[in-house]
Amino acid sequence: MNSPPLATPTGPNATSAASAIPAGFIRVESKLEGITVYAPAPRVDKLADARSFKCPNCGATTAFDPRVGSMTCSNCGSVYAIQAQTVGRRANEFEFTLDTVNSTPRGWGLTRRDLHCENCGANISVAPTELSTTCPFCGSNRVAARTAVPDAFRPRVLIPFKTARDACTQLARAWLKRGWMYPSDLVHAARGAQFTGIYLPFWTFSARVNAAWRAEVGREKREQYFDVGEMKFKTRTRLEWNWEQGQVALPFDDELQTGASHINGRLLKRLAPYDLNALVTYDPGYLAGWRAQSYEISLNDAWDAARTRMREIARDACDEQIDSRHVRNFSMNAVFDDEAWRLILLPAFLATYRFADKTYQIVINGQTGKVAGDKPVAWTKVWAIVGALVLPGVLLAGLALAFGMLRYQSGGLFLLGGVVFVVGAIVAVVLLQQAQRGGEA
Fold first, then answer.
1. Which of 127, 219, 300, 324 is the most exposed, having the fewest neighbouring CB atoms within 10 Å of its CB?
2. DSSP summary character for residue 90
């Protein structure tokens, strides 16, 4: 638990002892004249295990190469294996206890700096020699270097990059060419895209949810009655309401929850799935030559979001037990057991590109090469196709009306025109809905 701030008097009458900074505290701004306020100093690990990556052969800087899965030297070509173990879904999980949180290692385990984007607020961890960059989240150049925060939880496992950076342009070009509703020259936008390989933070949660439900369920009952007015028996349906209850037990394993707030969550979902069986124990060597983002969404906030999602799934499972569409006064009590968490890093390539003076984002799964992102829709092309779909029906109906005015039999032609129009309109609505969603493909 954090200690409360300390306040000491200042001024000519204050003692020299009071003006000294207490051990474990730092001076902060005071809103009261003559009062000095100290707050607990933030935890700063000395990072005794921090490593730098130099080639033993030539002294040049080495970096992780996804093509060989090892550290490589771009100067002399030497290759050095990373001593990490593939653990997959068997990777250790941690309980929600104070001791577990306090004992979790902090920092990256190697010397790094944070680059802070003044436009979108993202923080990107980079090598200490990298002082400026373009923000991979928003494309802004308003980026400033600052000391990395050493107090963040250290990831315990990660999935290394499998896709090479030089493959990203071709993957993006193929993705930009896909689809009929986009500008024909959109593929050329990939030429200026600069792809940044970055490890994104994710929380994984496991739990067992025991949900008990109770509700009034209406069952349809058919009964016969005698209609005095018509003097005959008839059949009618009525609802018979009764209280019912049930239970479901659901295990959740490795429910992913993003720890990054500066990237579109829907784009991250489109990158799925990541194969978590490829998780390896964390080694700082995997970050050498690559960027990483520390989590922006805290453990507690991520767990709240994951628990809400688990509760929704449990609610759906309870609904499936009720074999009637007539339900009222539904209530559910969900109990969570064996809650556990992990902080992991997943690889991705981020890039922004400009088209028609607007900025769009592309994200590539660094493990599978799957592409997602934003695309501009060519609405002129979309409306032309919509018009081509509904026009035949309109023309046939108009022709039928013209024949009718000339006293020709046109009922069949008018009916055909109506059918063609309805079919074309339904297809047009579907295409318009696809186009509206097409901005995020």
1. 300
2. G
Which pTM does this prediction carry? 0.72
User: What sign has the CA pseudo-torsion 47, 53, 54, 56?
Assistant: positive
Contact yes or no for 60/69 (Cβ under 8 A): no
Query: DSSP readout, 155-210?
Result: PSEE----S-GGGHHHHHHHHHH--SSS-TTGGGGGGG---EEEEEEEEEEEEEEE
pLDDT digit string (tens) for 1-43?
444 544 444 444 444 444 456 666 666 666 666 677 766 655 5
Strands 143-147 and 280-281: unpaired
Please write the tens of the pLDDT for every residue from 241-255: 999 999 999 999 989
Instruction: With cut-offs at 50, 70 and 90, classify the pLDDT of residue 87.
Output: confident
Closest CA relative to residue 340, chosen from 138, 154, 98, 94: 94
Classify burial at 418, counting beta carbons within 10 Å of its beta carbon; exposed 0-12, middle 13-18, buried 19 or more: middle
Query: Distance between the two ends of the chain, CA-based, in angstroms?
Result: 46
Closest CA to 257 of 217, 207, 214: 207
pLDDT at 160 over 50: yes
CA pair distance 149, 133, nearest whole angstrom: 19
Q: Are 103 and 95 in contact (CB under 8 A)?
A: no
Which H/E stretch holds residue 346? strand 326-355
Q: Is 349 helix (H, G, I), strand (E, B) or coil?
A: strand
pLDDT tens, 323-358? Answer: 999 999 999 999 999 999 999 999 999 988 888 888
Query: How buried is 276 (Cβ within 10 angstroms: 0-12 exposed, 13-18 middle, 19+ buried)?
Result: buried
CA gap 408, 419 in Å, rounded: 20
Alpha-carbon torsion (74, 80, 84, 88), positive or negative: positive
Judged by phi (left if over 0) then psi (alpha if -120 to 50, else beta), residue 270 lies in alpha
What's the token pair of residue 155? 């990831």
CA 338 to chain centre: 25
Taking residues 182-209, report their average pLDDT: 87
SS3 category, 285:
helix
364-383 burial, b at 16+ Cβ within 10 Å, e below that, comes to bbbbeebbbbbbbbbeeebe
Q: Where are the domains of the chain?
A: 6-40, 44-374, 379-437
Q: SS3 of 279, please?
A: coil
> DSSP H helical segments within 280-378, as ranges?
299-321
Q: Are 145 and 131 in contact (CB under 8 A)?
A: yes
